Amino acid sequence: MIKKYIILVTIFGLATLLLSSCGKRVSIKDNPISYNGRRDRGMNIIESERNIKNIPLDIEYKKFRLEDVIDKEYKEALIVGELGQMINIQEEGYFQKENGFFNYIGRDRKILVENVKGVMLNPPKASITDAYYDISNSLEDTDVLFILLDGFGYHQYIYALENGYLPFLGKQPRAVKALSVYKPVTNAGLAAIITGKYPVENGVHSRRERELMVDSIFKLAKDLNKRTIYLEGDIGILKTEIQPVLHLDENKDGFTDDEVFESTMDAIREGYNFIFTHFHGIDDCGHTYGDLSKETMEFINRVDGYLEEIISKWKGKVIITADHGVHSTETGGDHGEFRYENMVVPYITAEGGN
Question: What is the pTM of this model?
């Protein structure tokens, strides 16, 4: 039987650390995004494999176009706001500094995105919101296993792949790059995955929110009369239509992933049609040791072993992705910023029994 544990309610406080310019004017032509773990003010410009630069709030321009601050050609540019808004840049649009942040203004002088956090050039075609639609499109005809690898960025996936830490996933179809959501934290990422909506639509755009404004994939599964189970760590992240099965760290190894793994195997044996499994350990290691540290990579290898055993016993569709990635800091790792390490994650689809 699946073990059910007491729900532990923990509210995470969001600490906001701002990078100060100490009154010195910064050139917008030579200002790469900091890698020292401090959150930059202004807005960041990134690609899917590179942080390009930070546009600080003390720039000399009050109004500017993207071409004024970068010397790079691009086919598409995606503008992202504080509440998770995402729109493509318009031909006549421009950025305007006002009241301590940047707005993006359209051709009719209407604000299209308020409080711009960043711009991604040539963004990935896939998104973590695709998970909702991939699950819903499959669930009517086949069983679905969804695996969420918390805090597993695409750059970590590639590093682990190239250095032998993913012997099982390395034999699966190569992951595509998928865009996470802003703010790249667990609440917002999980909400986007299970609703198929961006934060501005589903109502969860930071660690503070737990209430969804729209239905989730669990509602759809219930409507389809699918036998469904949602396997979590030791706390509930969001309020959903079904209660998550929570897990204590019974063996006191510092992680709940081994307990979640065992419950996933139980769920497969018990014939569930839809299993939603959330592993947290990669994120925990990333925070403590850093995104590309040996310790984090060894834990990724451990999870890869779990995935091999789980998927070998599953008969149906498998979807694996992450809510966000992690970047390096002076003391370990962190996330929640508009930078490629946080915003781009792997997205893998496979068939069970392999």
Answer: 0.89
What pLDDT digit, counting tens, does each position of 164-201 carry? 999 999 999 999 999 999 999 999 999 999 999 999 99
CA atoms 124, 320, 346, 45: torsion sign: positive
Complete domains list, the chain, with CATH = 43-121 (no CATH), 126-351 (3.40.720.10)
Task: Render pLDDT for 292-324 as a digit per residue (tens, 0 to 9).
Answer: 999 999 999 999 999 999 999 999 999 999 999
Nearest of 5, 1, 2, 12 to residue 249 by alpha carbon: 5
Amino acid code (one letter) for 251: N
Q: Cα–Cα distance between 96 and 111 in angstroms, integer?
A: 9
Q: Cα(335)–Cα(324) distance, rounded to whole angstroms?
A: 8
What is the rounded distance in angstroms from the CA atom of residue 40 to the CA atom of residue 92?
27
**Are 119 and 48 within 8 A, CB to CB?**
no
CA 133 from chain centre, in angstroms, equals 17
Q: Write out pLDDT tens, residues 66-113.
A: 999 999 889 999 999 999 999 999 989 999 998 889 999 998 899 999
Reference 337, options 11, 46, 31, 123; nearest CA is 46
294-313 and 281-289 helices cross at what angle (nearest 10)? 170
